[in-house]
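User: For a benchmark we're assembling, each entry needs the component sequences followed by a predicted structure for the full assembly. Here are entry 17's components. Please fill in the structure.
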Amino acid sequence: MLKKILFVFLLFPFLAFAQSKILIYMDLKQTDHLRAYGITYHALEKNYKADWLLNYRGGSFMIDYSNDIANECLVEGVAFDKLSASEAADIYSLVQRPDNNMSVVRLEKAPKIAVYVPPSFQPWDDAVTMVLDYAKIPYTKIWNDEILRGDLSKYDWLHLHHEDFTGQYGKFYASFSNAQWYIDNQIQYENDAKKNGFKKVSDMMKTVAQDIKNYVGQGGFLFAMCSATDTFDIALAAEHTDICAQMFDGDPADPDAQSKLDYSNTLAFTNFKLEMNPYVYSFSNINITPEEVGSKENDYFTLFDFSAKYDPVSSMLVQDHVNVIHGFMGQTTMFRKSLIKKSVTILGERPGMDQVKYIHGNYGRGTFTFYGGHDPEAYEHLVGDPPTDLSLHKNSPGYRLILNNILFPAARPKKQKT
Amino acid sequence: MRKKLFLILLFCPVILFAQTGGELSTQYMLAQNYIQAAQFGKALPILQNLYHLQPSNYEYFQTLNQTYIQLKNYDASIALIEERISGLQGDINLVGLLGTSYYLKGNDKRAFEVWDNALKTFPKSEVNYRIIANYALQLRAFDKAIEYLKSGEAISQNPQFFAYDLANLYSITMRYKEATEQYCLILSHDPNQLNSIQSRILSYINKPDALSQSINVVKKYDNGNEISFKYLLSRLYVQAKNYDGAYDLYKKIDSFQNSQGAELYNFGKFLYDEKIYNMAEKVLNDLINKYPESPLISYTKLQYAKTLEAIVEEENKAQIPAWKPYYLPVKNNSSNADKVVEAYSEIAKIYPHSEAANEALLRIGEIKLNIYNDLSGAKELFQELFTDAPLSELTAEAYEELGNGFLLKGDLTSALDCFQKIAGNGRFPEDKRNFATYELARINMYLGNFPKAKDYLQSITNNPQNSSANDAIELSLLMNTAQNDSSNLVTFAAAEFLADQKKFNEALEKYRTVLNDPQKLMLQNIAELRVAEMEIALNNYDSASVQLERIAGEKEGNIYSDKALYLLAKIYQFGLNNKPKAIETYESLLANFPNSLYLDAARSEILKLKDVVNNG
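Assistant: Structure for entry 17:
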């Protein structure tokens, strides 16, 4: 009898542990997809076990049950089911069946997030900081000083948004050179360059881009949107030449800059042509122009379907409750397919066209993801437009793609059988 | 023959020159086309040749120099400029260009040396300093540009000649104190520049420390009778929320300008618009006392009355326990209200039969009703309005206020009359007429005229767009479901009437009667809730809590169970000040009633409460 009792007591914690789970389903029934990521992130911070069920009900999260997490879901308006151990086991069993394109990825730890943001006022909003704030995911703002002194190694994940790594101040010269924010911005960059020992802002930005590339090479996760995608690669390619006109860095651009570009130094793009006219609001032919995009009504992109069991990384990045998503513009809206390196994986594109929205690739021990466009819920987010109220877009599939990237560094994909 | 030969010889150089000039011009156009196509390498030999042919042509020189710079061939540029300088002593622009080429080459030291030496050797002219400063500015060498401008200022008979440039440079280099100094220098010489200077200073005062630095500088200049500095300083004080300081300055401005209060009136109006009511009241009151004969006195009094009314409204809002569904009337300290009445009365007297007077009458009537509880006084005032402006929107408002007043006093006939006057007048706004119709339905319910009440409600619900439709639907549901239980419906209606009159104890008894009747049918749920609401109104939080917990426990069995839980959380939050319990109760609402209408409000309260708990 005593043995029996002892046996029951020994098993008790496991039974209790296995008793219940929280399933945060991510299909169309979810009430707030964006905050669901925040809940999962917080669960990881509190050392709860969390699994990402790839392709199961829109890429659901399964977390050990606790009143703490359940309450947080209730308060944040995130729909969930409380599952018994057997119900949870049924789901795991379904997900792991070989004939289903589903998989389980264990999320290990809450990644440390850094967002690259200039300290000065910017007359536009950053979709990533907005969604991180909305989902209540903590992050640290960093800028050139922190990167140049080597602070990137403190973070698992780095986000870049509407930045210009070429040192041309976003090529806003023609429209905004007399605007106070532009003048202040230029002064701030120049002072920062001076402080860090660079004569020109463009030289500082090239070094910053190279440092970020090295961070990726050493295992960092880089996510970039809008103009931070193509200008990052352009800055890397232009390491040994001057592509900035006189109004940007005080001296003329190298007339042979185009021929001196080194495409082997870039992460994602190759063979692109620079736009050297300082009055044109474009950096190169990587970006798909608004004329090429066509009408807003027809602007949709499609996410690729990857094998969840054999390609979990790409699968994680495309988890969504829909796979056709409304497009959105940006200074860099989409990428020209013919200029994307072969080694890069295309995650989302406009089918049948040369227009790619969402790409992913590896460099060294790290990875990078580029996502075209500025704000997934503001089709044309113009300079000076008010920020998007994400409480009106709780189920935004476009914003979900950003948040997939945030949890992606937390994942420990299963080793594949060889 | 000799003559012919002479003429040919005379014209020959001209013909030759004309041909060469045309060719050169064509060559130059070709070079420019290459430049526009960014093919500087192709433009270069053409320009070199042109310059060789006509070294005195400044355009060729300048284009050639620019092409060297575009090709980053700075040594060639320097050689070209130095060669030209040697032939053309005394051209400060060439020195500027030479410094630029050295700077672009990366030799800042030599660039500054070239410029410094030139300014030492050239005649001491403020124009020369400005020219060189502009070259430095183009290269964004701001500190050097400031240095040259300061040197120019030192030798100038007219220091303000440099002030705009210096101020601009100081502001972009974030030296706001110095920038403001320069702007003040300009203002001291030309007070007409006030608007321009004020807008320039205001463009940077949001930067860290800029406002305090600017105030200190302007204060230093505001030491005499110069009015422009007082305007500027008062504006900066307002930005710094130093309203007393700004007011003192406005008093001085008004006095210096002899504007009989016009400046003070503007300031008072500005404060009102910014919702700084207490200060606005002070300013306007002083104005009325100091300038009783001012041409602006009527506007001032109207503004003063509005300001006092805003203060009274804010006081009332702060005292009302708005979280309760029903609450006892709040005793108001009517000293401010007296002042409002006095101020509005004066307006009504000064401008009889005007729109302003009508508005004044309405406001006084509202105060009499809501603060003095003086129904007959209000009625008397409103009568004037009904006679003078029978079709005005203000009249509809007055009827509505009066109808509510009669309801509170229990005079249903008079209330009915008031609301009928609104509902039956097609000239009144539609939302006023809909609300009046809804009130007519309620009054008929209180009177036991249920079919008539339902007719009124139907006329509202026929148009779901109108603002009273939701209330009308709710009341219709109640009356339709309880129509077979008419005795209890009469008791319930009587209880509702008592609750409207704020006779909460008596209402409580009536609601309990409904609850205790074994015949009770559909009225039970709402009567249970009302009992709790009456207990809350009477501050009986314990018994209200018990009642609400019981209702909430019925879950799907009671359509008000989620509302009961929400009210219970409110009791903990505001009545008992038990924040953890309030959070727990709101969370319970979220957990047990996932489809409740109160979810968003509960979430928002939880977050607020957690914030308060976590931040002490």
